[in-house]
Amino acid sequence: MSYPLIISSMGIVVCLITTLFATDMFEIKNVTEIEPSLKRQLLISTVLMTIGIAFVSFFTLPSEFTIFNFGSDKVVKNWHLFFCVSIGLWAGLVIGYTIEYYTSNAYSPVQDVADSCRTGAATNVIFGLALGYKSVIIPIFAIAASIYISFSLAAMYGIAVAALGMLSTIATGLAIDAYGPISDNAGGIAEMAGMIHSIRERTDALDAAGNTTAAIGKGFAIGSAALVSLALFGAYVSRAGIKTVDVLAPKVFIGLLVGAMLPYWFSAMTMKSVGSAALKMVEEVHIQFNTIPGLMEGTAKPDYATCVKISTDASLKEMIPPGALVMLTPLIAGTLFEVETLAGVLAGSLVSGVQVAISASNSGGAWDNAKKYIEAGATEPKGSDAHKAAVIGDTVGDPLKDTSGPSLNILIKLMAVESLVFAPFFATHGGLLFKLLLIKH
What we know:
Enzyme class: translocase
Pfam family, one: H_PPase
Subcellular location: Endomembrane system
Number of helices: 14
Helix content: over 70%
Strand order of the largest sheet: 1-2
GO molecular function: diphosphate hydrolysis-driven proton transmembrane transporter activity; inorganic diphosphate phosphatase activity
InterPro entries: PPase-energised_H-pump
């Protein structure tokens, strides 16, 4: 039980050391060095953390011990756990670098999306969606490999510590994730303050790198959510007393179908919420331009408070239905149907949720950086038809990368946690619908 805590503590120390490489050892002198520097942070923290994991595993664990494995005891050696944590750690790096390739405007995928803007917004959207779907392939193989190896070595505990490994460099991950919004807001302040154009160019370069690092951070979160949810799924199966989860059983298969549908339902709700809030905001802006004298000329100030109220009200009210979907689904599935059906729901939501989350985040990040690529003057001038098409793509991508994609981790993990908590109740009192049908029959 102490082992995960010591690994996490080692991760904090490693990430503090890693920070020195960016601030003191490698000075950044031009904008082209920003993204490589941030990418280097991930690699350095991963290498140092691997050494830290080896140290913790060999000095804090006994050379051999037994763990519970679905009714039997499994003999595990300390080097088994070293490999479990390390495979999760390096799978995270693979996911991060893959996402960086698909969302950075330094590489061909985003450049192709930017080039597609020459023929309009429709082709931009098509290329962006295709990029998002394609970007799922390598992360899924990385997650699958880490699951297989860690389960083979140390059963469900192995998967749990692999998730811990993926999150062991979370301090570095959070730092480079927060980097994007900070740079974006700095650019907004520079523009509103009327600062010279060169400053805005620098903040745009920082923001473009920040979009990529934010996507990398989301990739880490989604990958670890998959591993954590699988570990929780194993705990639920054990606690609910399920011997095997048979996919061919009708009550399990219907759960798989419904579970696989939930991320799409959840994404539809969150995306529509962003759209309706944006619609209200645009209407308010039109009203203010028509009713406040001198606003168009820049001699009068807009009513900021009303715009802020629209955003905050929407952020609170619009999240109630998606939240209810996440909280009520396990309760309904576990109470009306049997524990096996709920197991199917959890498995289905895990499998489809990871794919939808990665593709949504990466499509959004690619559209945003394609717009930045054009604004930097790489293909077409700012204000051209291609730039307008890129802005439309970015507008489509914002709810995907900032709302639907990241929030799907919560759907996956929260349903698993809730099912685990209520597992004994569902095992004893669940299956009401089947019981009623049996009584009637």
